[in-house]
Write a structure and sequence with these properties.
The structure is a single chain. The chain is mostly helical and 327 residues long. It contains 16 helices and no strands. It is a multi-pass membrane protein.
Protein backbone atom coordinates (compact mmCIF):
# COMPACT_ATOMS: atom_id res chain seq x y z
CA UNK A 1 0.00 0.00 0.00
CA UNK A 2 2.79 2.42 0.89
CA UNK A 3 4.62 1.78 -2.37
CA UNK A 4 1.45 2.23 -4.39
CA UNK A 5 0.48 5.49 -2.70
CA UNK A 6 3.97 6.90 -3.01
CA UNK A 7 2.93 7.25 -6.65
CA UNK A 8 0.79 10.02 -8.02
CA UNK A 9 -2.42 9.12 -9.79
CA UNK A 10 -0.99 9.46 -13.31
CA UNK A 11 2.06 7.37 -12.34
CA UNK A 12 -0.13 4.59 -10.98
CA UNK A 13 -2.34 4.66 -14.09
CA UNK A 14 0.72 4.30 -16.31
CA UNK A 15 1.66 1.08 -14.51
CA UNK A 16 -1.94 -0.11 -14.48
CA UNK A 17 -2.45 0.32 -18.22
CA UNK A 18 1.04 -0.81 -19.18
CA UNK A 19 0.31 -4.38 -18.07
CA UNK A 20 -2.73 -5.05 -20.32
CA UNK A 21 -1.03 -3.17 -23.16
CA UNK A 22 1.95 -5.52 -22.91
CA UNK A 23 -0.23 -8.64 -22.70
CA UNK A 24 -2.34 -7.58 -25.69
CA UNK A 25 0.77 -6.84 -27.75
CA UNK A 26 2.23 -10.25 -26.89
CA UNK A 27 -1.09 -11.85 -27.85
CA UNK A 28 -1.00 -10.07 -31.22
CA UNK A 29 2.51 -11.33 -31.93
CA UNK A 30 1.64 -14.89 -30.88
CA UNK A 31 -1.36 -14.85 -33.21
CA UNK A 32 0.86 -14.40 -36.26
CA UNK A 33 3.48 -16.87 -34.99
CA UNK A 34 0.86 -19.58 -34.44
CA UNK A 35 -0.66 -18.87 -37.86
CA UNK A 36 2.78 -19.29 -39.47
CA UNK A 37 2.65 -15.74 -40.82
CA UNK A 38 5.20 -12.95 -40.80
CA UNK A 39 4.60 -10.59 -37.91
CA UNK A 40 3.72 -7.12 -39.23
CA UNK A 41 6.18 -4.46 -38.21
CA UNK A 42 3.65 -2.54 -36.16
CA UNK A 43 3.20 -5.52 -33.82
CA UNK A 44 6.78 -6.60 -33.21
CA UNK A 45 7.65 -2.92 -33.19
CA UNK A 46 5.11 -2.59 -30.40
CA UNK A 47 7.16 -4.95 -28.25
CA UNK A 48 10.24 -2.83 -28.85
CA UNK A 49 8.31 0.31 -27.98
CA UNK A 50 7.03 -1.22 -24.76
CA UNK A 51 10.51 -2.49 -23.84
CA UNK A 52 11.87 1.04 -24.19
CA UNK A 53 8.90 2.38 -22.20
CA UNK A 54 9.53 -0.18 -19.45
CA UNK A 55 13.19 0.79 -19.21
CA UNK A 56 12.20 4.45 -18.93
CA UNK A 57 9.60 3.58 -16.31
CA UNK A 58 12.16 1.77 -14.17
CA UNK A 59 14.51 4.75 -14.36
CA UNK A 60 11.60 7.09 -13.67
CA UNK A 61 10.34 5.25 -10.60
CA UNK A 62 13.89 5.08 -9.25
CA UNK A 63 13.96 8.85 -9.63
CA UNK A 64 10.60 9.16 -7.85
CA UNK A 65 11.69 6.98 -4.95
CA UNK A 66 15.20 8.27 -4.33
CA UNK A 67 15.35 11.75 -5.84
CA UNK A 68 11.83 13.21 -5.54
CA UNK A 69 12.94 16.78 -4.86
CA UNK A 70 15.82 17.40 -7.27
CA UNK A 71 15.90 21.15 -7.56
CA UNK A 72 16.26 21.44 -11.32
CA UNK A 73 14.56 18.26 -12.54
CA UNK A 74 11.25 18.27 -10.68
CA UNK A 75 9.49 18.91 -14.00
CA UNK A 76 10.49 15.43 -15.21
CA UNK A 77 8.06 13.95 -12.75
CA UNK A 78 5.35 16.17 -14.17
CA UNK A 79 5.82 15.33 -17.86
CA UNK A 80 7.09 11.73 -18.00
CA UNK A 81 3.70 10.13 -17.19
CA UNK A 82 2.28 11.91 -20.23
CA UNK A 83 4.95 10.32 -22.44
CA UNK A 84 4.15 6.90 -20.93
CA UNK A 85 0.49 7.58 -21.68
CA UNK A 86 1.23 8.25 -25.36
CA UNK A 87 3.39 5.11 -25.68
CA UNK A 88 0.65 2.96 -24.14
CA UNK A 89 -1.95 4.62 -26.37
CA UNK A 90 0.01 3.79 -29.51
CA UNK A 91 0.16 0.11 -28.65
CA UNK A 92 -3.48 -0.17 -27.60
CA UNK A 93 -4.50 1.74 -30.73
CA UNK A 94 -2.83 -0.94 -32.86
CA UNK A 95 -4.10 -4.01 -31.01
CA UNK A 96 -7.73 -3.33 -30.04
CA UNK A 97 -8.92 -5.90 -32.58
CA UNK A 98 -7.25 -8.64 -30.52
CA UNK A 99 -9.30 -7.72 -27.44
CA UNK A 100 -12.85 -7.12 -28.63
CA UNK A 101 -13.85 -8.34 -32.11
CA UNK A 102 -17.37 -6.89 -31.90
CA UNK A 103 -17.08 -3.79 -34.09
CA UNK A 104 -19.65 -1.01 -33.78
CA UNK A 105 -18.80 1.08 -36.86
CA UNK A 106 -21.84 -0.23 -38.79
CA UNK A 107 -24.01 1.10 -35.98
CA UNK A 108 -22.21 4.45 -36.08
CA UNK A 109 -22.82 4.67 -39.84
CA UNK A 110 -26.54 4.02 -39.32
CA UNK A 111 -26.68 6.70 -36.62
CA UNK A 112 -24.98 9.18 -38.96
CA UNK A 113 -27.50 8.42 -41.69
CA UNK A 114 -30.41 8.81 -39.26
CA UNK A 115 -29.10 12.09 -37.86
CA UNK A 116 -28.06 13.82 -41.07
CA UNK A 117 -29.69 11.94 -43.93
CA UNK A 118 -26.22 11.58 -45.49
CA UNK A 119 -22.79 10.41 -44.46
CA UNK A 120 -20.98 13.64 -43.50
CA UNK A 121 -17.59 12.34 -44.70
CA UNK A 122 -19.10 11.67 -48.12
CA UNK A 123 -20.96 14.99 -48.18
CA UNK A 124 -17.68 16.81 -47.42
CA UNK A 125 -16.18 15.66 -50.74
CA UNK A 126 -17.79 18.64 -52.51
CA UNK A 127 -15.38 20.93 -50.65
CA UNK A 128 -12.16 19.12 -51.56
CA UNK A 129 -9.50 21.52 -52.78
CA UNK A 130 -5.69 21.18 -52.68
CA UNK A 131 -5.09 24.21 -50.47
CA UNK A 132 -7.97 23.30 -48.14
CA UNK A 133 -6.64 19.75 -47.84
CA UNK A 134 -3.21 21.08 -46.92
CA UNK A 135 -4.75 23.43 -44.37
CA UNK A 136 -6.74 20.68 -42.71
CA UNK A 137 -3.73 18.34 -42.80
CA UNK A 138 -1.75 20.93 -40.85
CA UNK A 139 -4.71 21.45 -38.52
CA UNK A 140 -4.97 17.74 -37.83
CA UNK A 141 -1.27 17.49 -36.98
CA UNK A 142 -1.63 20.47 -34.63
CA UNK A 143 -3.15 17.97 -32.23
CA UNK A 144 0.33 17.22 -30.91
CA UNK A 145 0.79 20.91 -30.11
CA UNK A 146 -2.66 21.61 -28.69
CA UNK A 147 -2.40 18.58 -26.38
CA UNK A 148 0.64 20.00 -24.58
CA UNK A 149 0.68 23.76 -25.14
CA UNK A 150 -1.40 24.67 -22.06
CA UNK A 151 0.82 22.49 -19.86
CA UNK A 152 3.97 24.05 -21.31
CA UNK A 153 2.55 27.56 -20.91
CA UNK A 154 1.85 26.97 -17.20
CA UNK A 155 5.26 25.32 -16.77
CA UNK A 156 7.02 28.38 -18.21
CA UNK A 157 4.85 30.65 -16.06
CA UNK A 158 5.89 28.64 -12.98
CA UNK A 159 2.34 27.69 -12.04
CA UNK A 160 2.89 24.04 -11.04
CA UNK A 161 -0.47 23.37 -9.38
CA UNK A 162 -2.47 24.63 -12.36
CA UNK A 163 -0.08 22.84 -14.72
CA UNK A 164 -0.69 19.52 -13.06
CA UNK A 165 -4.47 20.00 -13.07
CA UNK A 166 -4.26 20.36 -16.84
CA UNK A 167 -1.89 17.42 -17.11
CA UNK A 168 -4.03 15.05 -15.05
CA UNK A 169 -7.18 16.05 -16.96
CA UNK A 170 -5.47 15.45 -20.31
CA UNK A 171 -4.01 12.11 -19.20
CA UNK A 172 -7.35 10.91 -17.82
CA UNK A 173 -8.99 11.84 -21.14
CA UNK A 174 -6.57 9.47 -22.87
CA UNK A 175 -7.09 6.62 -20.40
CA UNK A 176 -10.89 6.96 -20.45
CA UNK A 177 -10.64 6.99 -24.24
CA UNK A 178 -8.60 3.77 -24.26
CA UNK A 179 -11.26 2.07 -22.20
CA UNK A 180 -14.01 3.22 -24.57
CA UNK A 181 -11.98 2.05 -27.59
CA UNK A 182 -12.03 -1.46 -26.16
CA UNK A 183 -15.75 -1.32 -25.32
CA UNK A 184 -16.72 0.16 -28.70
CA UNK A 185 -14.17 -0.84 -31.37
CA UNK A 186 -14.82 1.06 -34.57
CA UNK A 187 -12.81 1.47 -37.76
CA UNK A 188 -12.61 5.02 -39.19
CA UNK A 189 -14.72 6.01 -42.21
CA UNK A 190 -11.66 6.14 -44.48
CA UNK A 191 -11.70 2.33 -44.16
CA UNK A 192 -15.38 1.43 -43.72
CA UNK A 193 -16.64 3.71 -46.51
CA UNK A 194 -13.60 3.37 -48.78
CA UNK A 195 -15.63 2.05 -51.75
CA UNK A 196 -18.16 4.91 -51.55
CA UNK A 197 -15.78 7.85 -51.93
CA UNK A 198 -15.94 9.33 -55.43
CA UNK A 199 -13.10 11.86 -55.11
CA UNK A 200 -9.50 11.58 -53.99
CA UNK A 201 -7.55 14.12 -52.02
CA UNK A 202 -5.09 16.34 -53.80
CA UNK A 203 -2.67 18.51 -51.93
CA UNK A 204 0.93 19.49 -51.55
CA UNK A 205 3.86 18.29 -49.48
CA UNK A 206 2.00 18.53 -46.14
CA UNK A 207 -0.84 16.31 -47.30
CA UNK A 208 1.62 13.82 -48.78
CA UNK A 209 3.56 13.57 -45.52
CA UNK A 210 0.43 13.15 -43.44
CA UNK A 211 -0.86 10.41 -45.73
CA UNK A 212 2.43 8.56 -45.23
CA UNK A 213 1.97 8.80 -41.46
CA UNK A 214 -1.64 7.61 -41.72
CA UNK A 215 -0.54 4.64 -43.81
CA UNK A 216 1.65 3.53 -40.91
CA UNK A 217 -1.52 2.82 -38.94
CA UNK A 218 -2.93 -0.70 -39.25
CA UNK A 219 -5.73 -1.19 -41.75
CA UNK A 220 -7.55 -2.95 -38.89
CA UNK A 221 -7.45 0.15 -36.67
CA UNK A 222 -10.38 0.22 -34.25
CA UNK A 223 -9.74 3.51 -32.46
CA UNK A 224 -12.38 5.82 -33.95
CA UNK A 225 -14.97 6.07 -31.16
CA UNK A 226 -14.67 8.43 -29.38
CA UNK A 227 -12.41 10.93 -31.13
CA UNK A 228 -9.54 11.58 -28.74
CA UNK A 229 -8.32 14.29 -31.12
CA UNK A 230 -11.52 16.19 -30.40
CA UNK A 231 -11.67 15.24 -26.72
CA UNK A 232 -8.14 16.44 -25.96
CA UNK A 233 -8.62 19.56 -28.10
CA UNK A 234 -11.77 20.57 -26.24
CA UNK A 235 -10.39 19.91 -22.76
CA UNK A 236 -7.24 21.87 -23.68
CA UNK A 237 -9.42 24.80 -24.77
CA UNK A 238 -11.41 24.57 -21.54
CA UNK A 239 -8.25 24.70 -19.44
CA UNK A 240 -6.85 27.51 -21.56
CA UNK A 241 -10.05 29.52 -21.03
CA UNK A 242 -9.74 28.94 -17.29
CA UNK A 243 -6.06 29.80 -16.89
CA UNK A 244 -5.23 32.14 -19.79
CA UNK A 245 -7.87 33.83 -21.93
CA UNK A 246 -5.20 35.06 -24.34
CA UNK A 247 -3.96 31.52 -24.93
CA UNK A 248 -7.55 30.35 -25.38
CA UNK A 249 -8.16 32.79 -28.23
CA UNK A 250 -4.82 31.83 -29.82
CA UNK A 251 -5.88 28.16 -29.77
CA UNK A 252 -9.52 28.64 -30.73
CA UNK A 253 -9.20 28.74 -34.53
CA UNK A 254 -6.62 25.89 -34.69
CA UNK A 255 -8.87 23.87 -32.37
CA UNK A 256 -12.00 24.39 -34.49
CA UNK A 257 -10.00 23.61 -37.62
CA UNK A 258 -8.74 20.37 -36.08
CA UNK A 259 -12.30 19.24 -35.32
CA UNK A 260 -13.42 19.97 -38.89
CA UNK A 261 -10.33 18.20 -40.22
CA UNK A 262 -11.33 14.92 -38.57
CA UNK A 263 -14.36 14.70 -40.88
CA UNK A 264 -12.83 16.34 -43.97
CA UNK A 265 -9.87 13.93 -43.87
CA UNK A 266 -12.15 10.91 -43.24
CA UNK A 267 -10.68 10.03 -39.85
CA UNK A 268 -13.88 10.22 -37.80
CA UNK A 269 -17.65 10.09 -37.91
CA UNK A 270 -19.50 13.08 -36.49
CA UNK A 271 -20.79 10.89 -33.65
CA UNK A 272 -17.14 10.25 -32.74
CA UNK A 273 -16.73 14.01 -32.32
CA UNK A 274 -19.86 14.28 -30.18
CA UNK A 275 -18.64 11.42 -27.99
CA UNK A 276 -15.20 13.04 -27.77
CA UNK A 277 -16.73 16.32 -26.60
CA UNK A 278 -18.83 14.48 -24.01
CA UNK A 279 -15.71 12.69 -22.78
CA UNK A 280 -13.81 15.98 -22.46
CA UNK A 281 -16.59 17.68 -20.48
CA UNK A 282 -17.00 14.63 -18.22
CA UNK A 283 -13.26 14.42 -17.58
CA UNK A 284 -12.93 18.16 -16.95
CA UNK A 285 -15.38 17.98 -14.05
CA UNK A 286 -14.49 14.53 -12.73
CA UNK A 287 -10.66 14.70 -12.86
CA UNK A 288 -10.25 17.06 -9.85
CA UNK A 289 -12.38 14.77 -7.67
CA UNK A 290 -10.47 11.63 -8.69
CA UNK A 291 -7.14 13.35 -8.12
CA UNK A 292 -8.26 14.75 -4.76
CA UNK A 293 -9.45 11.30 -3.64
CA UNK A 294 -6.09 9.76 -4.61
CA UNK A 295 -4.08 12.50 -2.94
CA UNK A 296 -6.03 12.09 0.30
CA UNK A 297 -5.06 8.42 0.27
CA UNK A 298 -1.45 9.41 -0.40
CA UNK A 299 -1.42 11.72 2.59
CA UNK A 300 -2.54 8.76 4.66
CA UNK A 301 -0.21 6.10 3.26
CA UNK A 302 2.72 7.78 1.47
CA UNK A 303 6.12 7.59 3.11
CA UNK A 304 8.13 10.01 0.91
CA UNK A 305 7.99 13.76 0.59
CA UNK A 306 6.25 14.95 -2.54
CA UNK A 307 6.60 18.47 -3.85
CA UNK A 308 3.05 18.29 -5.21
CA UNK A 309 1.49 17.49 -1.83
CA UNK A 310 3.55 20.23 -0.20
CA UNK A 311 2.37 22.78 -2.77
CA UNK A 312 -1.23 21.69 -2.33
CA UNK A 313 -0.97 22.12 1.41
CA UNK A 314 0.65 25.52 0.89
CA UNK A 315 -2.21 26.59 -1.36
CA UNK A 316 -4.72 26.19 1.48
CA UNK A 317 -2.52 26.96 4.49
CA UNK A 318 -1.29 30.43 5.56
CA UNK A 319 2.41 30.72 4.79
CA UNK A 320 3.49 31.41 8.36
CA UNK A 321 1.94 28.13 9.54
CA UNK A 322 3.27 26.16 6.59
CA UNK A 323 6.94 26.99 6.86
CA UNK A 324 8.74 24.33 8.81
CA UNK A 325 5.71 22.03 9.00
CA UNK A 326 6.06 18.32 8.39
CA UNK A 327 3.62 17.85 5.52
Amino acid sequence: MKRIFNLRLEEFLALLFFIPSLLITIKANLYFIEAGMNIPRRYYGGLTRLAVTLALMIAFYYFVKYRPLWKYTWWLREVMPFLFCIAIYTNMHDTIGFVNPHDVHDTLIRIEQWLFGVQPVLWAQQFYHPWLTDYFSISYMNYFIIAVVVVLYLLVKNRPLEMRKVLIGTILSFYFGYFLYILFPAAPPRLTLATEFTRDFSGGFITHMQNKLINLNPSSSRAAFPSLHCAVTLISLMYAFKYSKKLFFVLLVPGISLVLATVYLRHHYVVDIIAGFALAIFTYFVAPHIDSWWNNLRRKYATVDDRLLQLQEQEFTPHDTFVGSNT
